[in-house]
TrEMBL record:
Recorded GO MF terms: ubiquitin protein ligase binding; ubiquitin-like ligase-substrate adaptor activity
GO annotation terms (biological process): positive regulation of proteasomal ubiquitin-dependent protein catabolic process; protein ubiquitination
InterPro entries: De-etiolated_protein_1_Det1
Annotated protein name in UniProt: Uncharacterized protein
PANTHER family, A to Z: DET1 HOMOLOG, DET1 HOMOLOG DE-ETIOLATED-1 HOMOLOG
One CC-aspect GO term: cullin-RING ubiquitin ligase complex
Length: 118
C-alpha cells in the first residue's frame, strides 16, 4: 500500500469506475460534459515509487520530488479518452445521478435546469 495526499487532478468532479474497471468517469467542472478516462492500471506509477524514499506515505511536506508525484499521479493512472457534452444549454448534470447499464456499455446521467417562477 502507498498513499499520496493532495493529488492534483483536472478541474472536474470524479465519479466512478466503469463496471469492468477499464474507465473512470468524471463530470466536467461546468457540469455539462461526461469525461471518460482510460485507467492505466495499478502499476502505472511503479517507476516513480521505486525511487521514492518514502516507504508508504507522501503527506503535505513541501519536498520537490513529492510535489512532482502529487502533480503527476492522476495523469500517470488516467488518460482522457473522451469528453462528451450531454447537458443541453441551461442545464447541468446532477453529480449524484449516474448509472451504468447492466452490460456496462452505457452510462445514464441526469441533468436539471433552473426554472423561474414566471
Amino acid at each position: 500500500d502507498f498513499t499520496i495526499i493532495n493529488v492534483e487532478k483536472p478541474p472536474c468532479f470524479l465519479r466512478k469506475f466503469s463496471p469492468d474497471g477499464q474507465y473512470f468517469i468524471a463530470f466536467s467542472a461546468d457540469q455539462t460534459s461526461v469525461e471518460i478516462y482510460t485507467f492505466k492500471g495499478c502499476t502505472a506509477m511503479n517507476e516513480f515509487l521505486q525511487i521514492c524514499k518514502a516507504k508508504d506515505f507522501i503527506g503535505n511536506r513541501p519536498e520537490p520530488f513529492h510535489d512532482y508525484l502529487r502533480m503527476s499521479a492522476f495523469h500517470a493512472f488516467f488518460n482522457l479518452k473522451h469528453s462528451v457534452n450531454v447537458a443541453p444549454t441551461g442545464e447541468q448534470l446532477n453529480r449524484e445521478c449516474s448509472l451504468f447499464t447492466e452490460d456496462g456499455k452505457y452510462i445514464l446521467v441526469g441533468s436539471a435546469a433552473y426554472i423561474t417562477d414566471e
